[in-house]
């Protein structure tokens, strides 16, 4: 068997997939090599903000007037944002003390991802009228989640929207729709015969992946991130991949309490960026060797995957969304807030946004929003005091060296295959100036500089921005690629320690 290097192919994009590679510093497959750089993840902006919550319970008599939970999906279609979430109303028989399952799937829309409205769909009667936002789906079922996938290129228009939910007996159920509002349940339901508390769905190369929490009902002592596969969205594997886990297993000290210690809650909600899939997972942190859930803490962390099966946490236990920001409390002293993810990363203008809910006795009342500057989820930068990365050389050593360029911080990408027309490069960066810059060289697969695209040919990037074009003497387009290329991104200038790289983009 021959090992194959991870390669990004932009020359033959599949229908509906991005014609752009997004190279995040925390993706060690896309950017495997670095020197003198430290990786940092970036927590969301404070969520105790004027825009939160973005959705609260409905008016009395509506189907989401008693509880709303995210556990759902947000996506952009034709310039508008669409949300599916689970709920129940004041006419439903619900026991919040026992966390009974939700009765309905509801729908909302937004033009900016912040201000949401409930359209009157007129599809399902509730409390004597149809003036509500209920989607039409299988009656008599329950809903602990509702994860939606949209495939506009599906040859069957009636199957372009696909839904996976945790329903009766905690089994997995699926349905199909032409518009995301009127759903036809599969005749093969339930499609799983064990509990999969999912928040993630992914389609890759003719295969579907559902990503969720697997615990004791699925044969796992603790909660882990598990993945099931299907070739057609209706027939799912009865065996699962354990894609990511946090609980220590022997010979490390094992916690036999089923709620104790670090675990993975609800799998991960996914964001498919083409060459990498970014995931947000629940950081279940139970009290050591204790079943008292009142002492449980829950934040949201970051994982990535390239195949849908195997997941990596770039910086273990880093809190991307912090529960300590929440301004709600439980009845019991010392019980902290628990936050829960769904599938809903979006880029809107200069912002990256995602959504989450609150779980607990007095939670389930609102859906909330977390924000970052666009694609600024992590960064590479030189640092003097560091833990994760590599130490950058002192300026005095650079001045004394005959070839200082070889000592400067840099990172090098995996091979990238461009189409015949070539491609362009953009940087998402800050901290650059006339004394601190970033330059980019194009290399072949064997790390040899491509003539006309060497560091000396590059116009130094000295202006910060979310998408700054890279230019060489011959222009801003790479045209001379006879095979796979790599990019070498180099830090430079008198204050070479100032620039920060959040992402690089390669477009076809």
Distinctive features:
508 residues, five-stranded antiparallel sheet, 1 helix, 1% helix
Written account of the structure:
This protein has 508 residues and is mainly beta. Helices cover 1% and strands 38% of the residues. It contains one helix and 34 strands. It has one helix at 395-400; strands at residues 8-9, 20-23, 33-35, 38-41, 55-56, 67-77, 80-88, 104-110, 116-117, 147-150, 161-166, 172-177, 183-185, 197-204, 207-214, 224-230, 241-244, 261-272, 277-286, 297-305, 311-312, 338-341, 346-348, 351-359, 366-373, 378-381, 410-412, 416-417, 423-430, 437-444, 465-469, 477-478, 485-492, 500-507. Strands 2, 29, 31, 32 and 34 form a five-stranded antiparallel β-sheet that branches. A hairpin with a 2-residue loop joins strand 14 and strand 15 (207-214). The mean pLDDT is 92.
Task: Give a brief description.
By secondary structure, the chain is an all-beta fold. The chain has one helix at 395-400; strands at 8-9, 20-23, 33-35, 38-41, 55-56, 67-77, 80-88, 104-110, 116-117, 147-150, 161-166, 172-177, 183-185, 197-204, 207-214, 224-230, 241-244, 261-272, 277-286, 297-305, 311-312, 338-341, 346-348, 351-359, 366-373, 378-381, 410-412, 416-417, 423-430, 437-444, 465-469, 477-478, 485-492, 500-507.
Biggest sheet overview:
5 strands, antiparallel
Query: Given the helix and strand composition, which structural class is it?
Result: mainly beta
Percentage of residues in helical conformation: under 10%
Number of strands: 34
The first-to-last residue Cα distance is 32 Å
Could you list the spans in which at least 5 consecutive residues all have pLDDT below 50?
Answer: none
Tell me, briefly, the overall form.
Answer: globular
Mean pLDDT, all residues:
92
Please state the CA-atom Rg, rounded to the nearest Å: 24 Å
The proportion of residues in beta strands is 35-45%
Count of helical regions? 1
């Amino acid at each position: 068997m021959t090992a194959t290097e991870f390669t990004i192919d932009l020359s033959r994009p599949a229908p509906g997939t991005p014609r752009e590679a997004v190279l995040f510093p925390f993706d060690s497959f896309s950017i495997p090599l670095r020197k003198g750089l430290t990786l940092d993840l970036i927590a969301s902006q404070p969520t105790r903000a004027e825009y939160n919550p973005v959705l609260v319970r409905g008016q009395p008599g509506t189907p989401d007037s008693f509880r709303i939970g995210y556990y759902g999906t947000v996506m952009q279609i034709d310039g508008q944002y669409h949300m599916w979430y689970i709920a129940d109303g004041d006419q439903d028989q619900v026991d919040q003390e026992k966390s009974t399952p939700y009765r309905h799937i509801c729908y909302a829309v937004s033009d900016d991802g912040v201000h949401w409205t409930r359209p009157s769909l007129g599809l399902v009667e509730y409390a004597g009228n149809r003036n509500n936002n209920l989607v039409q789906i299988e009656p008599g079922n329950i809903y602990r989640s509702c994860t939606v996938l949209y495939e506009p290129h599906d040859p069957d228009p009636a199957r372009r929207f696909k839904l996976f939910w945790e329903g009766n007996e905690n089994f997995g159920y699926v349905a199909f729709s032409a518009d995301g509002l009127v759903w036809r349940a599969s005749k093969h339901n339930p499609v799983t015969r064990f509990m999969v508390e999912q928040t993630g769905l992914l389609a890759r190369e003719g295969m579907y992946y559902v990503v969720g929490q697997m615990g004791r009902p699925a044969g796992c002592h603790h909660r882990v991130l598990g993945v099931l596969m299907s070739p057609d969205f209706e027939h799912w594997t009865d065996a699962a991949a354990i894609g990511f886990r946090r609980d220590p297993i022997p010979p490390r000290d094992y916690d036999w309490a089923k709620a104790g210690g670090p675990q993975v809650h609800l799998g991960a909600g996914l964001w498919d960026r083409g060459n990498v899939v970014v995931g947000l997972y629940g950081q279940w942190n139970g009290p050591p060797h204790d079943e008292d859930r009142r002492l449980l803490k829950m934040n949201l962390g970051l994982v990535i995957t390239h195949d849908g099966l195997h997941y990596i946490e770039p910086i273990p236990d880093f809190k991307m969304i912090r529960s300590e920001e929440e301004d709600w409390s439980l009845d019991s002293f010392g019980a902290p807030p628990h936050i829960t993810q769904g599938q809903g990363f979006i880029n809107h203008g200069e912002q990256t946004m995602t959504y989450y809910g609150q779980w607990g006795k007095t939670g389930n009342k609102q859906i909330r929003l977390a924000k970052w500057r666009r694609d600024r989820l992590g960064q590479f930068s030189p640092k003097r005091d560091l833990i994760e990365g590599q130490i950058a050389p002192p300026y005095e050593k650079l001045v004394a060296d005959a070839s200082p360029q070889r000592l400067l911080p840099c990172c090098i990408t995996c091979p990238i295959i461009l189409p015949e027309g070539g491609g362009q490069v953009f940087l998402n960066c800050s901290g650059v100036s006339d004394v601190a810059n970033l330059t980019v060289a194009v290399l072949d697969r064997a790390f040899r500089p491509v003539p006309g695209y060497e560091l000396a040919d590059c116009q130094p990037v000295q202006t910060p921005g979310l998408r700054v074009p890279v230019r060489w003497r011959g222009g801003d387009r790479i045209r001379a690629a006879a095979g796979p290329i790599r990019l070498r991104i180099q830090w430079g200038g008198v204050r070479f320690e100032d620039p920060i790289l959040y992402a690089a983009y390669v477009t076809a």
